[in-house]
Design goal:
409 residues; Alkaline Phosphatase, subunit A; 33% helix
Length: 409
């Protein structure tokens, strides 16, 4: 690792940050702007719009999430796991949510939830690691270094202004890896602090404790150290001080922290939150586990939307919910489902035109027992990039153009 004294020239901002100067990271100087939404909006009229991406790790079973209850092939493939019509929350004459999804049912019936069917990609991988990397980078079977959200931040703001990206997790996701931006990454706000080896921590404390800089390079370093300390304090304070009457459900996996930062005036444009630890990998005795997971997920996301409305920011926030792939059509002998291909993606928000988008895959015209995808996931990304965030150059982010989906009012 580079040490500060080994590079007498003025360090580039990004080089310094990636050298570990304040590890879990806030990627900018002048941190107070991160907490001032009006400042950011004055510089960028589109800065008021916020994209929240929710990752359901482990590969959610889309067929038992948005259930095609009029299709006999579904029940033939799943004699035990198929959810009967009287056990569903029917949303129209073809599909129903499973009974646990009361929050999603409300959002759908309020016209604020879009279901994109059959989302996947060519030559699908059945590896959690590989497929998630493809979703994170927006480059199936490719070799992108940076994540699609990181590249989006770079395209919108090549200078790497403070606070565009926040990742609620114990470790940074590849999705928010960027060339010019360093995301703010934290899980437990009460324990949020810069990480580093003992030598680095000692050096940081000395930097923070000093008053004057001997030259411009040293002044730059002092500013970074103080900014990082300020970030820690402001995140802890925002989350500790936040009070809401909204019940976020039995399992809070991070959206309540997003609401706290939005309420505190953070200028963040992109939030990334994961329900992690491969919880949706339901190979065995799926029925009860999957229903319970969707109780937690549906309640938590619906509560976040309600809370954002309460804060007066409902018009400004859109949420995308995805998983790295779906499950096979047929149930297995362990009353679960194995790794599959396509599945639904959800886009939620006040500005979203709710309903169905894309074509539901056939349950009889299968590819070795798996669904044939009907919507490339990068079309969903392109829709969010251009239609929501307002970045006109989709190809700059996804390396090629993709047709958008008309789901925003």
């Amino acid at each position: 690792m580079q040490t500060l004294h080994s590079r007498p020239r003025a360090l580039a901002r990004r080089e310094l940050l990636r050298a570990g100067l304040y590890g879990v990271g806030l990627g900018a100087l002048g941190v107070p702007a991160v907490f001032n939404r009006s400042v950011a909006q004055a510089a960028d009229p589109a800065a008021g719009r916020i994209l929240v991406v929710v990752e359901l790790s482990g590969a959610n079973d889309g067929l038992n999430t948005v259930v095609p209850y009029i299709d006999d092939a579904y029940y033939r493939a799943r004699p035990a796991l198929g959810i009967r019509p009287d056990k569903l929350r029917k949303i129209d004459d073809r599909f129903g949510f499973q009974i646990a999804m009361a929050g999603f049912e409300r959002l759908y019936k309020d016209g604020r939830l879009a279901i994109v069917h059959g989302v996947g990609y060519d030559r699908p991988s059945f590896s959690h690691f590989s497929s998630m990397a493809y979703w994170h980078t927006g480059a199936p079977n490719g070799g992108e270094t940076y994540g699609w959200l990181g590249r989006l931040a770079d395209a919108i703001d090549p200078a790497g202004s403070a606070g565009y990206l926040v990742n609620i997790d114990s470790h940074q996701s590849l999705a928010v890896s960027a060339r010019n931006h360093v995301p703010l990454v934290f899980d437990d706000p009460g324990k949020f602090s810069r990480e580093g080896v003992a030598e680095e921590q000692a050096a940081l404390q000395k930097l923070i404790g000093r008053d004057g800089a001997r030259n411009r390079a040293e002044g730059f370093v002092f500013d970074v150290a103080h900014s990082a300390q300020d970030a820690e304090t402001r995140v802890r304070e925002a989350c500790a001080d936040y009070r809401t009457p909204v019940d976020y459900g039995l399992l809070r996996f991070g959206l309540e922290r997003v609401a706290a930062l939005i309420s505190a005036g953070f200028a963040t444009k992109i939030y990334y939150v994961a329900l992690r630890n491969n919880v949706f990998d339901t190979h065995v005795y799926q029925a009860d586990v999957h229903a319970r997971l969707w109780t937690y997920t549906s309640d938590h996301i619906a509560a976040f939307v309600k809370d954002i409305d309460r804060l007066g920011r409902g018009d400004d926030v859109a949420v995308m919910v995805f998983s790295e792939f779906g499950r096979r059509v047929a149930e297995n002998t362990s009353l679960g489902t194995d790794h599959g291909t396509a599945g639904p993606v959800f886009v939620i928000g006040k500005a979203v035109k709710g309903g169905h988008y894309g074509e539901a895959p056939s349950l009889t015209d299968l590819d070795d027992g798996n669904l044939r995808y009907t919507t490339d996931f990068r079309r969903v990304y392109a829709t969010l990039i251009r239609g929501w965030v307002g970045c006109p150059d989709v190809a700059a982010v996804l390396r090629q153009e993709f047709q958008t989906i008309a789901m925003f009012a």
